[in-house]
Amino acid sequence: MSAAKTRNRKFLTALRSTRVNTGRHEFELIAWIREHTRAHDRINLGIGDDTASLAFPNPANCLVTVDMLMEGVHFTMPPATPRQVGRKALAVNLSDIAAMAGRPLAAVISLALPRGVPAELAEELYSGIADLSDQFNIAIAGGDTNSWQGPLVISITALGETTHRGAVTRSGARPGDAIFVTGELGGSLAGKHLEFTPRIHEALMLHEFVDLHAMIDVSDGLAADLGHIVEESGVGLILDESAIPISPAARTAAEGDGCSPWEHALSDGEDFELLFTVSDDDGAQLLANSPLEIPLSRIGTVVDGGKMQLRTAAGNVIPLPVSGWKHLL
After folding, report:
1. Are 235 and 307 spatial neighbours (Cβ–Cβ below 8 Å)?
2. What pLDDT does 131 receive?
3. CATH code for 178-319?
4. What 3-state class would DSSP assign to 161?
5. Please, where in the chain does CATH 3.30.1330.10 lie?
6. How many CA atoms are closer than 13 Å to the CA of 60, on its beta-carbon side?
7. Superfamily the domain 3-162 falls into
């Protein structure tokens, strides 16, 4: 049987254990997913066996990442729609691959559906995943689906590859480096966290244009993610308050909660922008001739030592407030 005919078999077979209380049979849902999943030439052996077999140009350069999204923690329905949730579940994984300056290739999907949900919810989840996988030409290689008494949980594992320049890690920042961020920060809960586009193309362009020393995506918040670079690289930094690009959503959020727009930009998280360091010379080149269509801001400098500091708008250097998202265990 051809890969095109078998590529969904494992994912669809797994759905047979999931009862959807909609008055229609679960096999109708299976047929719907079969009809709406496209073939992909990267899948050598499709769904129907215990694993899929994927074609990797260079298996030694494989990137693997996984993210789990839980209803009530990472999204709430409503206001989020199932289609937005499915899209976000894949997008957060692609953002991790972008942070390594890699190319995404394939993904596998695990769903825990609340027992008794309408079949349309699962269809919309899958449609959101398909929207983004089509945009970035990603093969959906399989997965698993179950039902339970709890809320919706979706976990996606994404696989990618590095370019000829290799992966960019968090540990390469050097004293004297310029610190940059793409886009604008803060206020993501107003909608961006559900609708953002992973910075895959931007990361690849930057990787070709300059020598990226360290990079991360802004998921936990600017201050928290800067802390990850500081810890892994064994350096310090000075962040310039006046240079941080603040989103309109952060300014709107600040009008109603007593926090400043700057505080939202520093700590809200889920912006999924690229945060990276380059040499001072490369930083000057980026400011003079950026290869990106989106805004690019120099927001600070890497220094010796392990301190995270803030240069205020008044010119004073103070400890950088530690803020951002942390999961409590």
Report:
1. no
2. 94
3. 3.90.650.10
4. strand
5. 3-162
6. 2
7. PurM-like, N-terminal domain (3.30.1330.10)
CB 178, CB 206: distance < 8 Å:
no
Q: What is the pLDDT of residues 285-302, one digit of tens each?
A: 999 999 999 999 999 999
Q: How many CB atoms lie within 10 A of CB 329?
A: 3
Contact criterion met (CB below 8 Å) for 185 and 250:
yes
Q: How open is the CA angle 139-144-145, to the nearest 5 degrees?
A: 120
- The radius of gyration of the chain's CA atoms, rounded to the nearest angstrom, is 21
Give, in order, the Cα–Cα distances in Å from 191 to each of 1, 162, 250, 261: 43, 31, 11, 16
* CA–CA distance, 314 with 317 (Å, rounded to integer): 9
Strands 153-162, 139-148: pairing is: unpaired
Kindly state the DSSP code that residue 191 receives in the 8-state scheme.
T
How is residue 77 annotated by DSSP?
A: T
Contacts of 2 (CB under 8 A, 6+ apart): none
- Token reading at 200: 């895959």
Q: Give Cα 190 to chain centroid, integer Å.
A: 17
pLDDT of residue 46: 57
pLDDT tens string 37-95: 566 767 665 555 566 677 777 777 889 999 999 998 889 889 999 999 999 999 999 99
Residue ranges, comma separated, of all CATH 3.90.650.10 domains in the chain are 178-319
Q: The tokens 């000057």 sit on which residue?
A: 284
Give the whole-angstrom CA distance, residue 281 versus residue 315: 24
| Residue pair 169/100 in contact by the 8 Å Cβ criterion | yes
